[in-house]
Specification:
With 402 residues, the chain is α/β, with parallel strands linked by helices. Helices cover 46% and strands 17% of the residues. It contains 13 helices and 15 strands. Helix 1 packs across helix 2, helix 7 runs parallel beside helix 8 and helix 8 runs parallel beside helix 9. It binds iron/sulfur cluster (SF4).
Length: 402
């Protein structure tokens, strides 16, 4: 089991559930926009929020961001992401250091040679002084070249048969960089339960191999994720593929989905994707999910597809309302919307409540099944069906999650 790390009012590692985190993309110096986006991320379910602190203006804003969030009832841990100048900013702006709940440092971006070690030590000294945890986050795009060059040289000295090759050396160098930095931080006085490690790579097999090796080397809490997952479905698949393998092996204490979402999409989409990955793996539930079939030649209209989307949107809209009303366990509810009788009633039986629509040529009625038993048969177009079915879902929630 990994060390338990306390980040503000959230604990990760140890026996704690996998925590969802996200990152803002506003200009941190813009307090109003950053506060608004943190709230959006938290409302979607983010339990930790990271923001970049790139310069004096950003560092100055952190105190006001934290204060405004607390005044508005958002006691979410805020993590400051530092590159190159973290040791300078945290020293120059004590309010920033005080207001943040965790610091993130990338050992590949703290300088070179002796300056690197001095800057890293200065950063860790500040974490110790302010009693803050630190994520030592190594990234494939900014790996410490000194560690990589040394390990590449060592590999070349091996016989051809024993040689690891560039990809393996690369991920091993990332692990080495993270682990060496953690050991240095411990030597500088940071407790092991104040350290979180990550080794993010955009290549999924390499990322999995790197985290497996990192997990086998020690008991540090791990922030798990790919980096730079890409756009659209490829981005979601990359994140899901990498995270799923590791999380099912018990590797990972907090996760972030890292990809390029469409600019039209809300920033909080990354939170929803992260939650859904964890939930479909059966590791933690956040909100009721819809099970629906892809459709086939037995469904020649879009009725069941429209209904599936309507129901999904309804569940997303109602989950915070149900939780606010105190319906405990509602996030575990499973709802199915299926296209025909081939798999519809069967799938509905595995759900809390489900509906099976008529396929082409079937009688125009839709059995609704709750807890494995048919409770009604309803009819109509998808608008009418969604109204009736949603009322049944409401009733199911009222009667099952009190
Ligand atoms: S449940 Fe029916 S409509 Fe859906 S994919 Fe299966 S056979 Fe096709």
């Amino acid at each position: 089991m990994t060390f338990e790390v306390k980040i503000g009012n959230v604990k990760i590692g140890g026996k704690n559930p996998i925590a969802i985190q996200s990152m803002t993309n506003t200009n941190t110096a813009d307090v109003k926009s950053t506060v608004a986006q943190v709230k959006e991320l938290v409302d979607a379910g983010s339990e930790l929020v990271r923001m970049t602190v790139p310069n004096d203006e950003g560092a100055k804003a952190v105190k006001d961001i934290k204060k405004t969030l607390l005044n508005d009832g958002y006691d979410v841990p805020i993590i400051g992401d530092f590159h190159y100048n973290g040791h300078i900013l945290l020293k120059k702006f004590p309010d920033c250091a005080e207001s943040l709940d965790k610091f993130r440092i990338n050992p590949g971006n703290v300088g070179f040679g002796e300056a690197r070690d001095d800057n890293f030590k200065a950063f860790v000294d500040l974490a110790v002084e302010y009693d803050k945890p630190v994520r030592i986050g190594v990234n494939g795009g900014s790996l410490d070249q000194t560690v990589l060059a040394k390990m590449m040289d060592e590999d070349l000295k091996r016989s051809e048969k024993e040689r690891f090759g560039n990809n393996v050396v690369f991920y091993k160098a990332m692990v080495e960089s993270a682990f060496q930095s953690a050991e240095m931080a411990v030597n500088y006085g940071l407790s092991k339960n104040k350290i979180v490690l990550s080794v993010k790579i955009s290549d999924v097999p390499m990322m999995i191999a790197a985290y497996r090796e990192l997990a086998s080397k020690g008991d540090y809490a791990l922030h798990v994720g790919v980096t730079e997952g890409g756009v659209g479905s490829k981005g979601i698949v990359t994140n899901a593929a990498g995270l799923s393998v590791l999380l099912l092996e018990g590797i990972g204490n907090t996760i972030r989905v890292s990809m390029t979402f469409n600019p039209e999409e809300p920033r909080s989409r990354e939170v929803v994707v992260a939650q859904e990955i964890v939930q479909v793996l059966g590791l933690r539930s956040f909100s009721p999910l819809v099970t629906s079939c892809p459709g086939c030649g037995r469904t020649t209209t879009n009725t069941y597809r429209n209904l599936a989307f309507e129901v999904d949107a309804y569940l997303k809209k109602m989950t915070p309302v149900w939780k606010k009303k105190g319906f405990k366990g509602v996030e575990k509810m499973k709802v199915s919307v299926m296209g025909c009788i081939v798999n519809g009633p069967g799938e509905a039986k595995h759900s809390s409540i489900g509906i099976s629509l008529p396929g082409t040529g079937e009688a125009p009625s839709c059995p609704v099944i709750a807890d494995g038993k048919q409770i009604a048969t309803i009819q109509g177009d998808y608008k009418e069906l969604s109204k009736k079915f949603e009322a049944m879902i409401d009733n199911y929630v009222e009667t099952h999650y009190r």
